[in-house]
Amino acid sequence: IQIAQCFEATRQRCCRLEQDGRRAREQLARVEAERAALEVKLKHARNQVEVEMKKRHRAEAELEKQERKLQLVFESLMREPWGSGVLTGEQCSVLSALAGRRLGAALVPGRRSSAVDESCQSLLSHSDISYDRTEDDVVRS
């Protein structure tokens, strides 16, 4: 009777272990599916970051190009003999507002400067935005 009880206890224990193993495999399958979905989302997010950074670079280049044009136009106006006398302080302030903060100092009447004031750059430059791909290299077992 003791041997039969021992076999029965062992059989019940084996059944519990099989159920635990089945649940663990199911949970593992769910977690792996979730991980795969998150990896796809991460890949899409990284691609989107790259696209947005390229757009930002193009926009910044265009902005700099337009700022240079505006500065050249203003300097050309100031070089003309009639330019400095014709432009009133209000007109210069309007031009300064159109030029934005980066060229504001260069557009002050009577002061010509080819240097661009870089002190008002964006607080989040493109170099501040980065991501680490080291997690991509993790060996999966």
TrEMBL record:
GO BP field: mitotic cytokinesis; mitotic spindle midzone assembly; Rho protein signal transduction
Keywords in alphabetical order: Coiled coil
Any coiled-coil regions, as ranges: 21-80
One example GO MF annotation: GTPase activator activity
Taxonomic lineage of the native organism: Eukaryota, Metazoa, Chordata, Craniata, Vertebrata
Name of the protein described by the UniProt record: RGAP1 protein
One annotated Gene Ontology cellular component of this protein: spindle midzone
